[in-house]
Amino acid sequence: MFKVLLNLKRAGVVGINRRNADYILRYNERSLYPLVDDKLRTKRLAITAGIAVPELYGVIEIEHDIGHLPNIVNGHKDFVVKPAHGSGGNGIYVIIGQINNRYQHNNGSLLREEDLEYHISNILSGMYSLGGQPDHALIEYRVKFDPIFESISYRGVPDIRTVVFRGIPVASMVRLPTRMSDGKANLHQGAVGAGIDLATGLTTNAVWQNHPVEQHPDTGANIGNFKIPHWDKLLTLASQCYELVGLGYLGVDVVLDRELGPLVLELNARPGLSIQIANGKGMQKRLEYIDQLAEIPASAQERASFAQNLCLQL
Amino acid sequence: MRQLHLLLLVIILCAVGLGLAIYKVTTLGLPLTTSEKAEVWNVEARISFRAKPETSVKVSLPLLFNPSGYTILDEDFVAANYGLAIEQDDNGRTALWAKRRAEGKQLLFYRAIIYKDTEKTTDSVKAPIYPPIPDYPENFRPIIQGLLDKARQQSADTVSFAQQVIKQLNAVSPAPELKLLLEHINNSRNLAKGVNWILAGARIPTRIIQGLRLEDGKLYSELESWIQVYDGKQWRTLNIKDGKEGLPSNFILWQIGDQKTFSVDGGSEVSLQFSVAKTLRELVDIAESRAALKGSHLMEFSLYSLPVQSQNVYKILLMVPLGAFVVVLMRNLIGIKTFGTFMPVLIALALRETELAWGLLLFCLIVGLGLLLRAYVDRLKLLLIPRLASVLTMVVLLMASISVIMHKLGLEMGLSVALFPMVIMTMTIERMSLTWDEAGPAEAFKQGAGSLLVATIGYLVMNIDALQHLIFVFPELLLVVLAAILLFGRYSGYRLTELWRFRALAKR
C-alpha cells in the first residue's frame, strides 16, 4: 500500500484533498460559483463574450410557464430540456423528433406532452439541483454531433472535458456515452473516457469503469489514435472560458457540432479527477508548473499553444 | 504564510487546551479517569451539657485551623436557636455560641469534612520568644532545678534535653523526690502543661498542640496533646508520654497553643466528644470544593455548576465534536462516502440509546421500508417538498408501529427507535433513492454501508467512558480536537480509497 502511495506521488496524481486544498480553495472564488452552477448565466455570459454555445430556445422559470412549452419549441423538431442547476448530466431530456404529437426521447421512448411537462415541473421543484433548490428549465438547441464520432459512441453526445488552470489547458479527455451510461457522458455512470494528447489532439488510451479499454464496449470500434476535429480551435475555446468566469481551476465541457463546430456546453468549478485515469497521467507536475508562473500569456490563443508546448515537456 | 498562520493557531489551541487541563489536574486535583474516589474524613465535635436555669449560655470551642497536610472541604455548625460567631486570629479560630435562655439538655455540633492534601504546606516558622523562668513555688524550686540539671547532663541539645525531662516525668518508678511534682501534674492534659512549665525553667520555648488521630469509626475520641520544642530552627514535636519525636501520619492538628480553650458558661454536666469517620467522595466534588476555597473561579464556571439534567445533556453534546472528527478522518483520510456530512454523527448519537446491534438493525429496517414506500410514492409523481413531507410522515408512522409491534413481542429495545432523528432518516431515504436512480443500487448501497460504518465507528469512539469523562471534566480538550480538525483542513495528501481508485496510474 505504501508502495502504491509512493508510485502515485511519483506519477504526479492529484487526489481530491489536494485538488480542493491547493487549487479549488485557492483559485476558485466562492462568489464566482453561481456563474458556472447556473447554466443559464453561463450561457448568457458566453453569448455576450462571443463564445459559441448551443442556441437557447427558451427558459421556463415558473410552474405556470410550462404551458408555453409548445410556443418555445415551435419550429424546432428536436431540442434538449435541461435543469439550469443540474449536475452529472442528470435531468437532461434529449428530444430527437416529434411523431404523432409525441416527443421522441433519445432513449427510444415516446413522451406525451404531459410527460414532458411533468419532467419540467420536477426540474422547477429542484429535483436535480444541488440541495433541492427551486430551479429553471432550459430548452436549447440539440447538438448534432460530428459523424466522425458515430463509431465510438452509443446514443447521446460525446463531449470533450478540458481542465483549465489559470487559463491554461492542463489535461483533456473525450467522454463517450455507452449503453451503460444511458447516453450520458459521465465516467462514473459508465461512459468511456479517452485521454487526448494536448499537442496533437489524438486520443491516447481509454478507460471504462476504471479499467483500461481499447475498443468501445458497445460499438467495438477502436478508440485510440482518434483525431479530434477542430482541436486547436477547441483548445482556444476552453482557454477563453477562464476570462469568461474568472475561475482559476475550471472544467470546460465542449461538444462538436457537425455544422457549428465546437460549442461550450457547460463549465464546472469542481471538475473530477478521473481525467487523470483517462489520460494515464497525473496532472500534478503541470499544475505545479503553472502555479509557479509569475505571468501567464494574455490571449487565449497563446495560452492554448503554451499548453501544447508544456505537454511535450511534462 | 497561510500554513504558518494555521500552525500557530494549532499550537496556541493545543497549548491553551492542554495547559488548562494540566492546571486543573495538578492544581485543582481533578481526576483524569472516571470514578476516581478519594478518602475524606468526617470529623465531628459534639458538645453536650445541661443548661442552668435562668442564666444565659455561652459556649466557646476552638476550631480546626489550617491543619497542615489537610484541606477543610466543608464545615457546618448545628445548634438549635443559638447565635453563632466565629472569631479568628493568628492563633486559631473559635466558634462562639450564645443563647439567652436555654432549658434542659443542650446539644451542639461542629462538623468538618477534611481531605488529605498531597501537597505539603510548609509554614514559615517565626522564631518564638524565649520564655522567662516561671516563678516556681518555693517547695518545687529545688526539685525542678535537680530535674533540669540531671537532664542537662544526659543530653546534647534542646530536643534531647526535653526528651530526658519527659522520660523522667513518665518513669515507671519515678525518683522519690519527683512524687510531689507528679501529683501536681496528674493527667495527660496537665502533663503537657506541666512539661511546658518545667521546660520553661531552662528557658526552652515550647508549645502545646492538640489534635485528633483519624481512625475510621472512632466515635468517642478526645483531643490528644503533644508538646513542641523549638530547636532554634523549627518546631520539633515530642510525645509527652515517652518523649519520642514525630507525629503519627494520621494525626490532624486541631489547635496550637492553649490560648483558646473549650468552655461552657451557664451549663453543667459538660462533655465534649469527637468522632471520626471515613467516607469516599468523588474526586471531582473534592476538586470543586478546593477550587472554591482557593478562590479559583475556574470551577465555578465549569459544567459541574449546571443542573444535573443539563450536565447529562452536555455529557453527550461534548462528544459530538469527537464524532465530527471521526467523520473528518473517515472522509478526508480514508475516503469513505456517506449520505450527508454529519448524518453518521446523528445516527451514532441515536445508537448510544439503542445499543449498537439493535440500532443498526432498526436503522436498516426503517430505511429499507422507507425506500419501498418512497418507490411507491415516486409513481405518483409528486413535487419535491410534498414528497419529502409524505416520506417523513411515513417514517414517523413506521417508527411508531415498530415500537408498538416490538413492545408487544416483548422486545423493549423497539421503544428506543423513537430516538432516531426522523428528519435525518427522511433525508437519508430521499438521498439514497436519488443515488439509486442516478448511480445505480450498487452506489446507493455503498454509500449506505459507508454511512453506517462511519456511524458505528463514531458511536464506538463517542462511547468510550474514559474519553467521555475526560471531555466532560476538561472541556478545554475540545480545543485540541479543534486543532486536529484544523490541521486536517489543510491535509492535501491522498485518501486511502484513492490509492485504489488511481491504482492503474501507480503501475506505470
From TrEMBL, chain A:
UniProt domain ATP-grasp: residue ranges: 43-298
Keyword Hydrolase: no
PROSITE patterns according to UniProt: ATP_GRASP (PS50975)
Gene Ontology molecular function: ATP binding; metal ion binding; ribosomal S6-glutamic acid ligase activity
SUPFAM superfamilies xref list: Glutathione synthetase ATP-binding domain-like
NCBIfam families listed in its UniProt record: rimK_rel_E_lig (TIGR02291)
GO biological process assignments: SOS response
This protein's name: Alpha-L-glutamate ligase-related protein
Assigned keywords, A-Z: ATP-binding, Ligase, Nucleotide-binding
UniProtKB/TrEMBL annotation, chain B:
Residue ranges of every copy of the 7 transmembrane helices usually fused to an inactive transglutaminase domain listed in the record: 260-505
Domain of life: Bacteria
Coiled coil ranges: none
A Pfam family that the UniProt record links to this protein: 7TM_transglut
Keyword presence, GTP-binding: no
Domain Inactive transglutaminase fused to 7 transmembrane helices span(s) in chain numbering: 23-184
The keyword Transmembrane helix appears for this protein: yes
Keywords noted in UniProt: Membrane, Transmembrane, Transmembrane helix
Spans traversing the lipid bilayer: 312-329, 357-376, 388-407, 413-432, 470-491
Name used for this protein in its record: Inactive transglutaminase fused to 7 transmembrane helices
